[in-house]
Amino acid sequence: MNCYLGIDFGTSGARGIVINEQKHIIDTRQINFSTIAPDKLTQTWQDTLFDLITQIPINIRKNLKAIAINGTSSTVLLADAAGKLITEPILYNDSRGKEVLEEIKTIAPDNHLVISASSSLAKLWWWQTQSYFDQARFLLHQADWLASLLHGRLGISDYHNALKLGYDVEHLCYPDWLNNLPFSNLYPQVLAPGVSIGAVTTFNCRHLELPLDCIVKTGTTDSIAAFLASGASQPGEAVTSLGSTLVLKLLSRTKVNATEFGIYSHRLGQLWLTGGASNTGGAVLKHFFTDKQLQQLSAKINPKTVSPLQYYPLLKPGDRFPHNDPNLLPQLEPRPHEPEKFLHGLLEGMSRIEALGYQKLQDLGSDQLTCVYTAGGGAKNTLWSQIRQRYLKVSVKLSTNTEAAYGSALLAADQSLLSKN
To answer: Contact, 6 vs 217, CB < 8 A?
Structure first.
C-alpha cells in the first residue's frame, strides 16, 4: 500500500497527514510548539520535523513513497556553503524590511509585490547590511530548509514560496532586474510545486525507518496547501484560512496584483489564486482567550446582532492586506467589561477585514465571489462563520478538509494536481 505524507509547519505547531492512493487519510500526527525562544526556532523546527515522522506507525512509514512540506510564506533563512544557518530566521510578519523599501522601489517595477515590508526580498535586502551577510550562500524559505533536512540538497524552492522573492511565475524565471542584484547568487533554483527533488538521504531513511525509494517533493505555502485541501476548484470560489493570521485566496481567471493593498496572485495551473494575508486572526484571539474561553463565550453571542465596537484587531502596529501599512495601529478600544462583548467585537472586526479584502479583489478585476470555504483552526467556530456570512453575503462552507497538511499530502501523491485547474 503506497502512502504519501504532507507536513504543515505553522506558527504554533506542525501537523502531518498521511493519505493512501485513494487520497483517504490513514494517519494524522500533531506537535504543538510551546513558547520558543528566538534563538531556538530552527532547532525546534528540526526536532519537530523528525519527531513528527517517527510518530507515524512503522507499518505506514515503511510504505511512504513521497513527502511534501508547506511552510509560512515569506519566512526566510540564510545558510552558508555547508548548509549551516548563519542567523535565526526572519518570520513572515516581520516588518524590518520597511527600512529598505525606498531602495527596492528604485529597481523593482511599479506596483510589484516585493515592495512590501514583509516580502522575502525586503528581508534579504535588509540582511545584506548585516556584518555576517558575507557568509551567506543560500537563501531558503521555511519549507525549502525543512525539506533539505530530509533530501540533503540546498537551494531548491517552489514558485509559490519564491513569489515574494520576486520570481516571475508567469514566465517561470527570475526577471533581469532581480538577477542584476549583487546577492543574486543566493537565490534558490525554482521548480513547480509537487516536483520530485530527490530521495530521502540513506542516513535519514535508516534513522526514520523509511523506504530507500521515498522521495521528497517541492512544497508550497501554508495558505495554498489549505486551498488545495478545501475542495474549491472553480473560478469565483475562495478559501479563507483562519489560522494565526487571516489569509484570503480567490480562484480567478484574471491575475490581480496591487501592492498598495497587499494583493498578489499565485499561479495555479491555468488559473490564478489571487489574494492577500492580514496580520489579524487567531493569534489575536489566543492572546486574549484560551480555547475553552473562546468556546464558552462564543455560545453567549448572537451572530445576528451587530457589535457596535469598531475594532481593527492587531497585536502590534502594521498590516499587509487589505491595508498594506506597516504603521497601521491596532484598534482594540473601548474594551467592554463583559468578555463576550469584547470577543464579539474582535470577531466582527476580523469579519469586516475579510469582507473588505474580497471586495478589493473583485474591484480590481478578479472573478466575482460565489462562495467561501473555510480552513484553519478558526473554521471550527460556527459563530464566527455565521458572522462572516453576514458580511460576505455568499455561502460560507467548511472546507472538504480543513488541514493544510492534507493539501501537502495531495501534492506529494499527485504532481499533476496543479495542472488540473
So the answer is: no
